[in-house]
Design goal:
3 helices, disordered N terminus, four-stranded antiparallel sheet, 450 residues, mainly beta, Tachylectin-2, Chain A
């Protein structure tokens, strides 16, 4: 029997067995295996915590939202629409809001997108379900106690499918809430649009505090990835931004965590504020800042948000003004795109604001305030077709199974019809660039279509 070596440490003697050649080989193999497993775990952790950048999005092409009438009136079309879309995994389809004058919702099948700058080469979707009033006459019932808004237009702000409850969740916003009387903003509906009696709402997410009310959460929504739900504290994010009467809405992206199953069960539905910029804290840019390098302008519109599973990136999508802020008539502000009186910052580009979920956790844990969170990067998006109008908010939807991102371009073709652009999101491991928020570069409008 081999005698052990003895290592002494003060009065403690520790016997150490004599190592044979075979034992050394076995230990070496074990160490290599442990290090290999550690590397794999490290890579998997990095992949799950990935931050997305512009080079992680590959453009696949576009398709047209179908023209024509798909309902019972001349306004049951998808022209002057595209302000809200939601991906339906059951049918590989999109729910989409209809004509701005009626604000119904229909469903379209997704064709194979085509990458071309020739509009005649872009395929058209087909209609799966005609446009219906899924709010069943309750769209304007947004004041306290469910009273109706009778003087201002109420629009659909966002659509999202809760696959846990198999329901369509929606939001509405008062276009010009001058007296800040909107109290309610969320609703639910079944997925068969022609079915009546399955509407519930309108519901209120979160109690108002410090002026933070419906105007901060009456727009876009997205699912929280399952791996983040426990830490974040809920299954979904909701928010809103950049509406008329800027004092009642966020000066940039916003996010409030909620559980869709609480809608109509708990009143108001509990919320956790994660991100917003109020009038006292205009971190990304104030209403009338004259500079061209701010990450938010009063003329911006943000209508979509997605959180791709496998990443810790929350992507906000909209259009961004690259010029100097100007309020007034379009002619006085030198704006040929936004033709109405209001806020201008010509020229414009479609745009992404990318946020790190770690910052949201810091807010939840009390080490940051919601207005202290800033995007870790931003970038301009160039579609093959130029911006024709910025009156409508664009929207976004995401398919986690295929990692496809759908971005709407209102007025994308035939002036009034939306286009849907499709990107593949690379969730795999790629070396990230310098995580510094980009400074917007001034672009000519002609460049946006090149």
């Amino acid at each position: 029997m081999t005698q052990p070596y003895v290592l002494s440490s003060g009065e403690l003697s520790i016997p150490v067995p004599r190592l044979t050649r075979r034992k050394i080989i076995n230990i070496t193999v074990s160490v290599v295996l442990i290090l290999s497993i550690g590397c794999i775990l490290s890579l998997n952790t990095f992949a799950a915590d990935k931050l997305l950048y512009s080079n992680d999005l590959t453009y696949l092409g576009a398709f047209k939202v179908p023209a024509g009438s798909y309902g019972g009136s001349e306004y049951d079309t998808f022209s002057y629409s595209g302000a809200a879309i939601a991906f339906n995994p059951a049918n590989n389809s999109l729910f989409i809001s209809s004509h701005i004058n009626v604000q119904y919702v229909g469903e379209i099948n997704i064709p194979t997108p085509v990458n071309s700058s020739n509009i005649n080469s872009i395929p058209s979707a087909t209609v799966r379900q005609n446009a219906y009033d899924i709010m069943e006459g309750h769209r304007t019932h947004i004041k306290a106690g469910g009273a109706a808004e009778t003087t201002q237009k109420v629009n659909i702000g966002g659509l999202w499918i809760d696959t846990v409850q198999n329901k369509l969740i929606g939001t509405v916003f008062n276009y010009y809430d001058g007296d800040t009387s909107q109290e309610l903003e969320h609703f639910t509906s079944g997925l068969t649009l022609s079915t009546s009696g399955d509407f519930t709402g309108m519901w209120k997410v979160g109690a108002n505090f410090s002026g933070i009310g419906a105007g901060y959460k009456s727009g876009y929504m997205t699912a929280v990835p399952s791996s983040w739900q426990s830490a974040i504290g809920g299954r979904a994010l909701t928010g809103d931004c950049c509406n008329s009467i800027i004092g009642r809405t966020s000066r940039g992206p916003s996010a409030f965590v909620f559980n869709p199953s609480d809608l109509g069960v708990k009143e108001p539905t509990p919320q956790i504020p994660m991100l917003y910029y109020d009038p006292i804290h205009p971190t990304l840019g104030d209403y009338a800042d004259p500079g061209t390098d701010h990450l938010w302008k009063a003329a911006d519109r943000i209508g979509g948000v997605v959180w791709p599973p496998g990443t810790k990136t929350i992507l906000y999508y909209g259009h961004h003004g690259l010029g100097v802020h100007c309020y007034g008539e379009a002619s006085a502000c030198g704006d040929p795109i936004q033709i109405y009186k209001g806020t201008h910052a010509y020229p414009y580009t479609f745009y992404m604001w990318a946020y790190n979920a770690d910052d949201f956790l810091a807010v939840k844990n009390g080490t940051k305030q919601p207005w202290q969170v800033v995007p870790y990067t931003t970038w301009a998006i160039t579609f093959p077709f130029p911006i024709e109008n910025v009156d409508h908010r664009p929207s976004a939807a995401y398919d986690p199974a295929t990692q496809r991102l759908y971005l709407s371009q209102p007025y994308g073709w035939n002036w009034s019809m939306p286009l849907i652009h499709v990107y593949k999101v690379n969730i795999g491991i790629t070396p990230p660039p310098d995580p510094t928020p980009s400074t917007p570069t001034l672009l000519r409008v002609s460049q946006l279509g090149e």
